[in-house]
């Protein structure tokens, strides 16, 4: 494997590992999770199985929808499926080492949810800069954006809202309470993007240097 590919893979897997940690911190904060994970968390209250398992199932369903949109299940989708498996496994693995992080007050819950947003944003930044592949959630949105000729960011917001509302409706109908969405979900919706931009500002030069990407300054 070429050295630059090895470094890209290291950055990407570090990003996936960081995302898994962020997901577990959200769970421990118990104020809801990021919109993209809300359906997976809802299913844990309804069916036997772990959060990691339902994360894999939801992402696989989105991957199938992506394949239907692009009319193929090719190399890109196979890689995404493999990454989804690794991500779900890392969620399960990292949860073992994070169980001792339990907030004892509402303020501690809010602080932990905020930390989860920051960690999640760092993971997103690393995966983006590795420029290898995307998770099925983003892959589905990207395919839909191309097919509908719509802006990726706007479709991302729509899907986030759809997943959150679906989780709330399912919870209210079947559980008679809202289990998977809360203040943490709101924080993730409004805070994560800004923190990604912050990390992008301070890490881009360092990551490009590590990855061997030449930056041309226009005079």
From TrEMBL:
The keyword Transcription regulation does not apply. It comes from the Bacteria. Keywords: Membrane, Transmembrane, Transmembrane helix. It holds the Pfam family DUF6198. The chain crosses the membrane at residues 50-71, 78-98, 110-134, 155-175, 181-203. This is YitT family protein. It comes from Holdemanella hominis. The lineage of its organism: Bacteria, Bacillati, Bacillota, Erysipelotrichia, Erysipelotrichales.
């Amino acid at each position: 494997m070429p050295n630059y590919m090895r470094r890209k893979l290291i950055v990407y897997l570090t990003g996936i590992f960081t995302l898994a940690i962020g997901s577990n911190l959200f769970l421990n904060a118990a104020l809801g999770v990021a919109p993209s994970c809300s359906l997976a968390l809802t299913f844990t209250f309804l069916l036997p199985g772990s959060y990691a398992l339902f994360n894999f199932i939801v992402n696989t369903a989105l991957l199938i929808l992506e394949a239907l949109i692009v009319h193929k299940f090719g190399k890109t989708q196979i890689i995404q499926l493999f990454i989804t498996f690794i991500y779900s496994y890392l969620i399960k693995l990292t949860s073992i080492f994070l169980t001792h992080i339990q907030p004892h007050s509402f303020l501690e819950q809010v602080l932990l949810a905020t930390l989860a947003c920051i960690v999640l944003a760092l993971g997103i930044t690393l995966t983006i800069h590795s420029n290898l592949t995307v998770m099925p959630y983003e892959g589905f949105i990207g395919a839909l954006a191309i097919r509908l000729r719509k802006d990726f960011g706007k479709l991302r917001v729509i899907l986030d809202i759809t997943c959150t509302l679906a989780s709330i409706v399912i919870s209210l109908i079947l559980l008679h309470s809202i289990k998977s969405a809360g203040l943490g979900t709101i924080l993730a919706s409004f805070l994560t993007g800004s923190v990604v931009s912050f990390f992008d500002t301070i890490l881009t030069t360092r990551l490009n240097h590590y990855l061997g990407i030449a930056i041309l300054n226009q005079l």
